[in-house]
Automatic annotation (TrEMBL):
Main location group: secreted
Biological classification of the source: Eukaryota, Viridiplantae, Streptophyta, Embryophyta, Tracheophyta
Protein species of origin: Salix dunnii
Annotated protein name in UniProt: Cupin type-1 domain-containing protein
The keyword NAD belongs to this UniProt entry's keyword annotation: no
Binding site for Mn(2+): 580, 582, 587, 626
Signal sequence region: none
Function (record text): May play a role in plant defense. Probably has no oxalate oxidase activity even if the active site is conserved.
Amino acid sequence: MAASFYYWNDCVDFQDMEAMWREPEVSTEWLDAGETKGSKVHLSRDPDGEPYLTQTEMMAVADIIVRRHFDSQMHPDMICAIAELESDRQPLSTKWYDKKTKETAVGIMQILPKTAEWLVRDLGYRAYEVERNPESLYGPFVSVYFGAAYLKWLSNFEGKVRSEEFIVRAYNGGPKKATHKSTLSYWKRYLSVKESLPFRRFVGPSVSIACSSTAPAVPATQNTNTPSTQNTGVDYIYWDSKASPEDMQEMWSHSQVAKEWTKSGEKRGKVRFSNDENKRPYLSRVEIKAVADIIRSKHFSTRGVKPTVLCALAEMVSMRFVNGAGPRTGLMGIDYSTAFWLYMELGYRAYRVNSVDDMTKPFVSMYFGAAYLTWLSEYEGSLSFWAKEREPSRDWSPLATIRASFELLRRHKENTLLELSCNQCEAGDYMDDCGSTARVDYFEQPKVVNKTLRSAVVRNFTNRQQPDSAIRRFISDKRELNHGTMTSVLLNAVLFVTFVAMVTASDPNIITDFVVPANSSTTIDGDFFTFTALRGFFDRDYPPNFKVTKASMAEFPALNGQSVSFATLEYPAGSINPPHTHPRSAELLFVVDGSLEVGFIDTTNKLYTQTLQLGDMFVFPKGLVHYQSNANAKNPATAISAFSSANSGTVSVPSTLFATGIDDNILAKAFKTDIGTIQKIKTGLAVKG
């Protein structure tokens, strides 16, 4: 392993090497050491011959990863200090061993391979490939990326904004030991290391900065006709990299946007985001209003979603920063798992979500934010009941905090004025405390009033106290507001308190009897709740080959939101259901005819097998590889499976490996065989298919 890490080029790709050379401190250090751009760069070595990163190199890697993937959400100094404690900045370090999983943590950030795989699979962190190449975790950029992703997850553990001490101690001992005495010494050493880090000319914004300043109404870094980084000192992010050509055309067709972009010298195909004084990209109020208008007109024109509400929510949650603020990602604070649930379970599929990075795209975040708000608004009449019923569960306990606000709305139907704290008031105080009021237009609000609003809202979300304070400070548009609009805006604001509390929780359960598919014209009667594809199932002859008949959300739309699905499985004599997994559900198998040999393999590669007779049941844990076999050469068998998801998904191991176009050379090496054997297997699968 050490030999392959003799040079920087051995453990990072070309793009990352170019990024390192662009860091002034790194290029100076490398050139002074005799390195040459375009040639391989030597890794530094300690007295034992082990490669390590210098402090300058470590800071550069942390800065680059944060700028690319965690802007406004994390301070690079935290990463640098933890890397110092975990590995002494040695990329080949393997100091920590997990006795339970029998895995060794690797790399600068000491990441367990299973942790990295979980971050990829469940949270959508897919900037680097690790599932097929676990050894890539030894690479500095890969290790820092997944270490930062884990730190971000800890920063909002169980839906609560966590302190720096909790995050650091949980990184060392896990969330359960974040307050245990065993992690206290680690925290103290962390503080000492962090304090000793050298002065940094530019490290990007800290989380505290992100939570204490908003994107200005007017760009802090004005775009000019010369977008060169060399002239401006700013690495711009372009709209065109964050939006589809169709959405960009819609933006250019928006008169106010076209006027603003033309005035600042933007060109089609290369439109820059504005940057604040800390070089964080954000949307101007004209831009965010246009995005909200476009999303509403194209996808929610009949759903009662108001662009003004979407704009105000984006202001509260992300302060209009492209990458989000604090632990929440993107304009609307929607995380990857929630967007994926909306996409798969509720049918909101105008935009695909392939990774967590997609949630930093303005149109994607706004779309799924509007979708989630729509889902919440459909159940507005049951919020009090919902909060009461769900309060005992930790996932839903934050809902109890919105009950007072929900009742407050019912009492405020006649109000036509929303009052904001004036400049003399402390953030969070009511205007009655100083006897003055301010009436503010959303799209013309001064920056100082905006800070007051944001402070009140952020404190309310964080402390879960006085939920009505965020509502009383909600910004109104004095030109268009009337009694009906006021009630609607207030109601949506209350729903968004629920929105923020829940976007990082597990997939929500519905609170009404059923869910009607989006944009559906289906008549809701008894037929909607009836599935007839299994009529005559027990009377017909067995098929010649193994057969599955599914009753999932795709075949039976009434299952949407019910967290249940069903399948019948027919096994002719001597047939099998090949090894496969269900990534989103456990499976409960019930044998109704014949007998079956079944088994599954856990994450330690232990095989569990059983012979099932008529009337037996067997559970296959969620996500694990399993199979069923009818070993009887004469008699068929039948089973029924139940799943804890309306769309459990199926990944067939043989088909995934041999029928998806994976290169024959890769498969031959993986299975330690020759290409001819691989091609023979592929041919056999093709014939059976």
